[in-house]
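for ur thesis appendix - HAD family hydrolase. copy paste whatever u need, i formatted it the way the template wanted (i think)
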Amino acid sequence: MLRGIIFDMDGTLTKPNVDFAALEREIGAKVGFIIDYAERSSPEERKRALDILERYEAQAAMESELNEGVVEMLEYVSKKRLKKALLTRNSRKSVDTVLHKHSLHFEFIVSREDTKPKPAPDPIFLLSKKMDIHTDHLLMVGDYKYDIMCGKAAGTKTVLLRYKEYIETEVVPDFEINSIREIIDVISHFERGVQV
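the 3d part is after this line
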C-alpha cells in the first residue's frame, strides 16, 4: 500500500537549469559531481567548491521553472492523502527559494545539510522516520540514477522521469514516466493493487 511519495527537486519538479559546464570551468577541473568532489578534497578546496556550487544553485533556484503538470500532480497527491516529501542534493537555501517562488509546500524536506547525500539510502531512512512510514510504503521519484539507486537501497519503489537525452541503463526503476503528470497513473496502479 502506498502511503507517501518522495520527490527529487532539480529535473523532477523543476526543469534542469544549472550550468554544470560553467561551474566546472570556474572550479578549474572536470570534477563530475561537485558534492562528491568536495567530499574528497582538502578542507580549503571543499569550502571553495561548495561556495561556487551554492552560487550557481542560488541563481538556478531564482530562475527555476516548474515542469509541466507539477502543480496538478501535487494537488492530486494531496487529494489522495498521501504524504509528500522532498529529497535533494541541493542546499536548504535553494530549496526554500524554489518552494517560495512557486508557492509549493512540503512538510518533509531533506537537503544536503541533513545527511549523507543520494545515492546513499540515508536520506530516505531519515524521511521514512520523519514521515512515520516504512520504506515499503514509499515511492521515490527522480530523474537520475542516483534517485533510483537511493530508493532501491532503502527499499522503496522507484520511478524514473526520463528525458529524451538521458536513458538510464545502470539501474532499473520500477516505473518509467515521460512526464511528471504520469505520477497520477502510477498512484492508480497502486490503488488497483497490481504487483510490481
